[in-house]
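Forum: Protein Structure Q&A
Topic: Joint prediction for protein chains with partners

I've read a bunch of threads here and the consensus seems to be that you should model interacting components together rather than docking separate models afterwards. I'd like to see that in practice. Below is the full input, 614 residues plus whatever partners are listed. Could one of the regulars post the assembled result?
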Amino acid sequence: MWDSFISIMINILLYIYAFIGQNFGIAIILFTILIRLVLYPLNAQQVKQSGALQDLQKSKKWQEIQKKYKDNKEKLAQEQMALYKEMGVNPFGSCLPTLIQFPIIIGLYQAIIRALAVSPVQLLNLSHHISGGADLIPLNNHFLWMDLSLPEKDFGLAIAGFGIPILAIVVVVTSYLQTKLMTPPSTGSANDQSAQMTKAMGLYMPIFMGWLAYSFSSGLALYFVVSNLATIGQYALMGRLDWNNILPQRASK
Amino acid sequence: MKTKSILTILTLLILAIALSACTGGSTVVASGWASVVADEDTAYFAYNNYVYAINLANGSERWRYPDAPDAAVTFYSTPALSPDGQLIVGGYNHTLYSLDPKTGALNWTYDESTGRYIDSPLITANGIFAPSTDNNLYAIGFNGLPLREPFATENELWATPGTDTQCECMFISSMDHRIYSVDATSGAQGWVTDDLGGAIVGTPALSEDRMLYIGTFANTMIALDADSGGELWHFDAQDWVWGGPAINGDALYFGDLSGAFYALDRQTGEMLWKVAPGTGSIVDTPLVVDDMVYFTVEEGLLVAVQADGSISWQETFEGNTYASPAAAGDLVLVTTSQPEALVVAFDANGAQKWIFSDAGE
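Posted by a regular:
Agreed with the consensus. Here's the joint model:
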């Protein structure tokens, strides 16, 4: 079942690759954008639901019941459910679109990795997924200065004698921007554990993504960049970007 | 604060494991791909981080190279023995190694390639010819020094070139879908085919009457005139033809990725018979010994077929295999992807004689 799904994804990717004149870098970019467009309605629904949930949790009524029933968890849960019902908010409304999107995103990721097939065993595996198109093999993995099948650490662009991991840096920057722009303002206090966790993840995650981009095939890093930019674009279209998170804040008087 | 840091690190670790799993293993374990080469009493093969020498009498280890594992050194290709007593093996780390077959001591290394060595070098009286994934065929002397500029093709080289001692030519199969005829002495190009429709990763086979046979990813087996490169006939298989064919008299044997194994009349390209004893792909070059044809199937199956297409015997073994069976005295040796059974030795009747394992205690 999963293998059949991956086969479909790989064949779409290869169809795009053949259609645009056999450039795997552009194929990755277009394939990622295509999948993001297909997932846009689900993503929009998820954003809308989670936005409604956040608005509710910032409401006065919500804060009041938190205070009132802080020592009675059972009653608090009952009141929260009543409030969800009253305001027409489904607390799990953003979960279903996420769950549906998840396997598709993993499939996209796997399709790219499997199509990059560097070693004989990987190419043999790829052959089991391809229906036709054997004349496309081996894929043209060269895009800009990159060999998409190799990690950037193996071919890093040398500027003035120094190997600069440009792609990894772009991944770090776009991951950071994505995290910052999409993180809603915290509803809790400054010492709130989850707020601190979110803040820490916002710092560590881009570095971690940069490390992955540096160590894994650069085709994957290209996918990270396009995916980050596509996500930022999607949120911009929905008007959910919070530019205040990256712009310098004026000191409060 | 401590809890926060631990939670963050744990989350990142879980994500790293998940992403690594999704890549299907980014680190390449070079396993079960290399075949065996043997002299009178020793078999040599490469697996992952080592080149091994095994006593043919009982399957015990004589030596391994290097002594201790080095993560930067991995092997995918089958070793080759040179006439002056060297064991040559290409590394997946872009380095070609010359070892002493008796002791495993390093003679020299050749580091000019920027690509990986997938298959063994061709060794002739002229020197060592090593195909690399950087598109080049490197010509190296027996002292490890380059003989001349490498011969460049348009795409990666995954197969040992075929050879013709009569004209001292080599036939290079390239992933650029072409076959190149090259003079082994001068390195000059003779002829090159047009695009044959698919990548070529098997070694071409040359007959005494100068017909050259090669399979392609375009599901075809093609016969060429070895003197001109002109196509004589082609046969449509069911799937990609990965390994090179083997010649025995007027028959040509090869398998495809659907698991079908064919015998063709090599003069006309007409099919004599076809068998499909396994479920996996056939990626190896068949072995012909005394009119018996041996081939392996991916899922761990060694098959012995007689010249009329009747299966004499077939034996399963642990692990997958992608390597050609090799003859060593009275034995037929197969390599697998399982450390518990890296090499399995069978006699001519299919009885298992010994297993070489490197699975530790």
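Chain B is about 5% helix and 40% strand.
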